[in-house]
Write a structure and sequence with these properties.
The chain has 197 residues and is of the alpha/beta class. It has helices at residues 45-52, 75-80, 98-103, 114-128, 143-156, 173-188, and strands spanning 5-16, 19-30, 34-37, 60-65, 68-70, 83-86, 161-165, 192-196. The longest helix is centred in the last third of the chain and has 16 residues, at 173-188.
């Protein structure tokens, strides 16, 4: 159901020595909604996102995912709750393949069945219309495609909330349209998207 609330933040507060960055902030995101979070530098956008992703602990308030209150104390907690972030600066490894970047850090045990991983990566890339091949070195892809690979990684990790932190700032018009096309696809799949700009 596209109208269902996927994320609810209520009464969020965060202070630093001498600065109250957030005071009694409420934020709601529905499934399949793209919500822009805009403001001047210092408005609190980054602080709110860092609270949501567990980089900062909140001083006050509650965070709920699909109606269940969650405790987010670390980025790992956020990931387990279904919250993924794609930052303006790509945080993947350009010297590894596209598939390796999609699955890095998610292996359990010493042995990894890479033939299955490459097949799965190809299925995900095809389903999202991302113009990259699983065995292609990530560094050979454009910046826009690298961002899309980071998004594909998030989607495969069953993200419910996808945060895009200033994703278009280094892209040209064609790359921006590719990114927006992917966002429309994710929206149709019911992913809630926060677009920070």
């Amino acid at each position: 159901m596209q109208n269902e609330i996927v994320l609810s933040m209520r009464g969020i507060g965060k202070s630093f020595p001498g600065v109250r960055a957030l005071h009694n902030v409420d934020f709601t995101l529905r499934k399949g909604e793209v919500h822009a979070l805009m403001g001047e530098n210092g408005a609190g956008k980054s602080t709110l996102i860092k609270v949501l992703t567990g980089v900062y602990g909140k001083d006050t308030g509650t965070i709920s995912i699909e109606g269940q209150e969650v405790s987010i104390r670390s980025p790992q907690d956020a990931q387990k709750a279904g919250i993924s972030t794609v930052y303006q600066e790509i945080t993947l490894c350009p010297n590894l393949t596209v598939a390796e970047n999609m699955f890095i850090g998610r292996e359990k045990g010493a042995l990894v069945g890479w033939s299955k991983r490459y097949k799965r990566a190809g299925e995900i890339l095809d389903s999202l219309g991302i113009p990259a091949r699983p065995r292609q070195q990530l560094g050979s892809c454009s910046l826009a495609v690298q961002q899309m690979v980071a998004i594909a990684r998030a989607v495969d990790m069953d993200c419910k909330v996808l945060i895009l932190d200033e994703p278009t700032s280094s892209l040209d018009d064609k790359e921006v349209e590719m990114l927006f096309s992917l966002m429309r696809d994710l929206k149709a799949r019911g992913v809630g998207i926060i677009f920070v700009t």
